[in-house]
Amino acid sequence: MAATTVRFCLALLILVASMASMAAWKMPSAVAGRRRSPKYADALRKCLLFYEGQRSGRLPSTQRLTWRKDSGLKDGQDAGVDLVGGYYDAGDNVKFGFPLAFTGTVLAWSIVEFSADMGPELPHAHEALRWVTDYLLKATDQPNRVFVQSGDPYSDHSCWQRPEDMDTPRSSFQVNDTHPGSEVAGETAAALAAASIAFRSSDPAYADTLLSRAKTVYDFANKYQGSYAVSIGQWVCPFYCDYGGYEDELVWGAAWLDRAANSSNYTKHISHGMQQIRRQKKLRVNGYDWQFSWENKDAGNYILLLLMQKTDDDYSTYAQNFACSLLPQSPTRNTEYTPGGLMYKAPAANMQAVTALSFLLLVYGRHLNNVNGSVTCGDSKFPPSALIDLARSQVDYILGHNPLRMSYMVGYGKKFPQRIHHRAASVPSVDQHPQHLWCKDGTPYYVTDAPNPNVLVGAIVGGPNDRSDNFLDSRPWSNQSEPCTYINAPFVGLSAYFSKHG
């Protein structure tokens, strides 16, 4: 009880200090002139470096975050398969397949759209993506079966333990013909298909392997339809439970396969799926709460299909509605913004919505530029630059242009979160503490207010989770201080573009 009281008092002091800092900060005027651009190229480098800190498996000799060591080397053994590799999704030590696949899809999309802007970081982007796809190839090696998780989340979450010492059960969970999981299988197919495009010029043989597997996995997802939230629900819910239905992932997978294979074989799946989604979710021309995340592909589907130059006018209509729902000056906007200018879409890990939606705004804005288009919202018309500028404003906020003058990317700038909710970062590394640390041995490092001993460079945390730009740099406040692979994935494309066009 005493420890809880101390943490509450510390949190309250931090909150008061944050509010005092904001009182002295004013939102910049829209006519005040262009501010100095952050170093987007440095942000891109660090954004990709973060993924090396999330690696599971045997680390290569090129590993740059050397405080991380090999881990999870027996993953899959309980099921007689090799599931070594992949990423830990966030600050825990479980490999959740649904957000992992989404991370792969968006990393691939970032490369497909912005490889020309990545410069010397393109090989690192390919490396980050390949760490996902190599694992997904292992997870989909058997017909009509996708391994979707490594690790018992309940046991894992009861420990504060670095991944190198894990002694909790590394249980393997799968979806198959009797326990379907169309959302996670559809997303896995999308990741493999999108990655095949990203690797097409640099490694065509690998791209062929990815595309072939994507087709097989999609056929399984479509033939054996059902939600993994039902078939293996207690192991994936509430952690990464799909509450919005799997139809959007089936469209998502089909769209990426259509684009990767340059084939119309998946057109009927796209058309049928979009009809179901419109009917079930009652998508409206105006007023819909557009999302894009590991759980919801609605906005992403429309933007992707528009880029593919499909002839259905609804794609452009709904894409325009998406932009109108976000643009601050739009008469049909339904998105909140904090006084500091941050999109507010989620009460927990809000940055995952910020980076994902900003990525779509940038991709859509570039498309409109290419076709000399614009966005009409009610009686107002907006040029493509309005979408791109909004995306830039969110990137700038994350990198420190905010009331707290804090970068929400660890290791970027002079002021950034020091106490992120992350086991590997907060517990002394094997180099510092060679002795094995058991399940509860890491607890003192969780409750202390001392900064983390290891800097997880490039990690973007959940960020402010209220409407007033408040942030607590505190491990127990995981909804603000925990980084996730799928927060960084869209930021790869964003920072790459603005590094050349900022």
From TrEMBL:
Keywords recorded for this protein, A-Z: Carbohydrate metabolism, Cellulose degradation, Glycosidase, Hydrolase, Polysaccharide degradation, Signal
Signal sequence extent: 1-24
**Domain Glycoside hydrolase family, first and last residues per copy:** 40-494
Enzyme class, first EC level, given as a word: hydrolase
Q: Does the keyword Signal apply?
A: yes
**Which molecular function term from Gene Ontology is one that the record holds?**
cellulase activity
User: Tell me, what is an example of a GO biological process annotation in this record?
Assistant: cellulose catabolic process
Write down the EC number. 3.2.1.4
Q: Which residues form the active site?
A: 421
Q: Can you state which reaction this protein catalyses?
A: Endohydrolysis of (1->4)-beta-D-glucosidic linkages in cellulose, lichenin and cereal beta-D-glucans
Write out the similarity annotation. Belongs to the glycosyl hydrolase 9 (cellulase E) family.
This chain's protein is named Endoglucanase
